[in-house]
Amino acid sequence: MSESQGPSTHYKPYRLKQTLSGHSEAVSCVKFSKDGRLLGSASLDKTIRIWSASASSPASAFKRELRGHSEGVSDFAWSSDARYICSASDDRSLRIWDVHTGDCVKTLKGHTSMVFCVNFNPQSNLIVSGSFDETLRIWDVKTGKCQKIISAHTDPITAVHFNRDGSLIVSSSRDGSCKIWDSATGACLKTLIDDKTPAVSFVEFSPNGKFILAATLDDTLKLWNYSTGKIMKTYTGHTNRVYCMTSTFSVTNGKYIVSGSEDCCVYLWDLQGKNMVQKFEGHTDTVISVSCSPIENKIASGALGNDRTVKLWVQDK
Question: Element (H or E) spanning 109, and its range?
């Protein structure tokens, strides 16, 4: 595990706490529930697995498997109360699951190609999904009905995310663009990136809603001020040329940016200083997804098919 020195004084390095095994194919997504008590992992093995985020051993961490999709699962999202999960699959459907019972309570159908990304709004009454069919769809959670179809991009959509009050949606695509949408009307309010190349492989709003973190397939992460359309910070050092991997904000102890990488590592940067603070080594394939616990200094990572594990990293007190 290597560290690079920089302005982050008194930084306590993360260490590997647990390795969670069980998926039989590549892990595609890891996400902590909003209360930090549970961790979900999705896989190309067509399942979502639910784990306790605080179990003392890997053997006691596994809680439940959600099975029903007929193809691999690319993404999933937690409802705000951690009662439900919505999963997005290559079988062209989304499914809403009751996490407590493991039952599929709704199947959302309408996309005409693989569904690649999904998120709930903060109120958890709406779901946004993005697909290889180049549309965004907004769904009513209660009825499972599609409310809006937005012809959003000219290539597959790689990420969708609501801002903190649910009024805006950000989307990214392999077409090299990142766009902001009014979630009520479906109108495009702004095109933030429109470069054709490289592909924009991931986007999400910052926790305060003022910035957008965007990944591009040229080994680069950028923090944008979306109201001014200006790039505030750029983060480099990781490898990202091929896969749509997730990156995120760590805000439980200082402010950091965390990302997976195609060199089998997790990278952590100081948000303000832009310097890489730590590189976590341990996975044996591309780290496709990372998630930060909302309640403690804990990071989850998931890796592709030569690895198939979820790893939990913690900072010592």
Answer: strand 104-109
